[in-house]
Write a structure and sequence with these properties.
Distance between the termini: 15 Å
Order of helices and strands: EEEEEEHHEEEEE
Helix content: 10-25%
Structural class: alpha+beta
Number of domains: 1
Radius of gyration: 16 Å
Strand content: 35-45%
Number of strands: 11
Shape: globular
Number of helices: 2
């Protein structure tokens, strides 16, 4: 399905020599690819025997730049995509691979709901004090990203040219040494 996107996918540049894999790809109701993820390193796991503290991965989320447009069912409009869209997808991606196993089962959903609300609020305020600025190369050119670390990993969001917004999240790999580039060969992400 990644091949059907009408925008360039982004991943880590050639300096990353580890395993690459395709993450989730999402389409709109009309079948148009809206966003997706390219993974690097280990695939995050919530299995009990896997210690999240030792997982090493980075996931790059590519979001197509879309203007305000009619919803697929014709009942309203959808907001334009932005860096906030990429930040939200990256933040929710990090949450999806973070599960507090030390918590009682009854409290876990409340924790997830709370963290999801926080991620949404943070994504909606990229200029706020919850974010710092990190300059990283995109196709070899320095670009500013909004960056945030937490106990669970890190999240960043920015824009790559006119066609896409980028988000990324990870754990066990430092965001400070990353670079991004357009994916020229999707078969490199076959696992």
């Amino acid at each position: 399905m990644a091949e059907a996107a009408q925008f360039p996918w982004y991943g880590l540049d050639e300096a990353f020599s580890g395993r690459r894999w395709v993450g989730q790809v999402r389409t709109g109701l009309d079948g148009t690819v809206e966003h997706g993820a390219m993974g690097h390193g280990e695939e995050p796991s919530l299995r009990f025997e896997t210690n999240p503290a030792v997982q090493r991965f980075a996931v790059v989320v590519t979001v197509a730049t879309r203007p305000v447009r009619a919803s697929a069912d014709g009942t309203g409009v959808l907001d334009a995509t932005s860096g906030a869209s990429a930040a939200w997808l990256a933040g929710s991606g990090l949450l999806s691979c973070t599960w507090p196993t030390h918590m009682e089962r009854a409290l876990r959903q409340a924790w997830l709901d709370q963290q999801t609300d926080i991620a949404w609020d943070l994504a909606d305020n990229l200029g706020g004090e919850g974010w710092s600025t990190l300059s990283l190369p995109v196709d070899g050119v320095p670009a500013d990203f909004h960056y945030r670390e937490s106990d669970y990993g890190w999240v960043l969001a920015g824009t790559a040219g006119d066609s896409v917004h980028l988000g990324a999240y990870g754990r066990g790999l430092s965001a400070y040494g990353l670079g991004f580039s357009a994916v020229k060969d999707l078969t490199a992400y076959s696992g």
